[in-house]
Every structure is written in C-alpha cells, then in structure tokens.
Amino acid sequence: MLIAIYADESCLGNGREGDNPGGAGGLIELPPAEGRGHQPIRRDYWLAEPATTNNRMALRSAIEGLRLVGLDGSAQRVVFTSDSRYLVDGMTSWVYDWARRGWRRKTGAIENVALWRELVDTARRHRIEWRWVRGHAGHPQNEYANVLATRAAARQVGSNGMIDSEFDAWLASERERGRVTIAPDPMPDLATFKPARPLPAIETESLF
C-alpha cells in the first residue's frame, strides 16, 4: 500500500519583527476502499503556532502528517509532496551530514534542530519518497494544502487529528471559478516508488 501526503505551510508576516502566527496543513490520500473504483480516501489535518516561521511550519507539516499515518505503530510507504525546498532538501540530503557530525554543521548551529531531529525520528520507521512541487502553480493538492495552512494560521486552530476532507468540494468550486485547471495527481504507483535512503537513528532521550 502507498499513501500520499500533500503538505504546505504558512506564516503571516514571515520575517517581520515581532510574533508572526503560522499554520501547517496537509491532505492525506489513502488507497480507495473496495468497490469505490479509483477514488482515494482523503483526510485533512492542520495545526497552528502563534509565533513561528515558514520553515518551522514546513517541518511541523511533515511531523504531523507522518505521525498520523503511523498512529497504529505500522510502517508505511509514503509519497510526501511539499513546495518547501527547505524540507525536501533537508530530508533527502542535509540530515545525513548533520547526524554524522553530531547534529552540528560547519557554519554554526542548525536552525530548528529540535524539529529536524523530531522529524527524522518520526519518519525513519516509514519508507518515504520526498517530492518537491512548485508552490502557487495551480497544483490541486498543493493549493488545497495551502488553503488549510493559511486558514490555520489566520484562525490559530488545529484539526486535532485527521478529519474527513473537503478537497472534492473545494476542487469543484475552484474549477468553476477557473482558478484550478490542472488535474489532481493520481494515487502513486508502487512500480515507480523511489524511497529515500534510510534515515539515521536518533537518541530519543535527547530529542528536545
């Protein structure tokens, strides 16, 4: 079984002086139930922080999505799609060097190191293919995740787990307005699944 997660992040006033509220959101797509054809089962999640950054919320979008699909303790095969190069490059390259150096880098402290370590610890049980997609380019699942993230940032609310998705209704509305013209990504195929290499082990007692 393959699971698809599309996640995005938001920080209102990112980089501005003072506390900037942020949010993260994700769309989880599970294989269709028997008798439902090719229509995936979709679930939404979102969370918020009152003072944060885009990069921090990108990490939290991945931590929460991977935590939710592994709630039963199972290891999953996941295709995780984000428009954050910070997240995708970090999880496919940077974390291996950081872990080898004792979670340090040559140029100084690692930004958001506690979240990076938490994400690696959450992700390492799964097999994950990390995909980058250009943001605000009309990609349906990415645009929808952005809606969830920006709404969470503005309202400072969380979903408290997975809930039934409103993706289909949102997509129909956006198509009617001519805002989204690209077809949604289909469910990923095991034949083309390319998981990243295994992640380094984390000493859980020193995660935070």
What is the number of beta strands?
Answer: 6
SS content category? alpha/beta
Order of helices and strands: EEEHEHHEHEH
Annotated CATH architecture = 2-Layer Sandwich
Q: What form results from the Cα inertia axes?
A: globular
Number of helices: 5
Major β-sheet strand ordering: 5-4-1-2-3-6
Helix content: 25-40%
CATH topology term? Nucleotidyltransferase, domain 5
Main beta-sheet strand count, sense and barrel state: 6 strands, mixed
Notes on the structure:
The protein is of the alpha/beta class. Helices cover 33% and strands 20% of the residues. It contains 5 helices and 6 strands; from the N terminus they run βββαβααβαβα. It has helices at residues 54-69, 85-100, 113-123, 140-155, 167-176; strands at residues 2-11, 22-30, 41-49, 77-82, 127-132, 163-164. α1 runs parallel beside α3.
Name its key features.
single chain, 208 residues, alpha/beta, Nucleotidyltransferase, domain 5, 5 helices, 6 strands, 33% helix
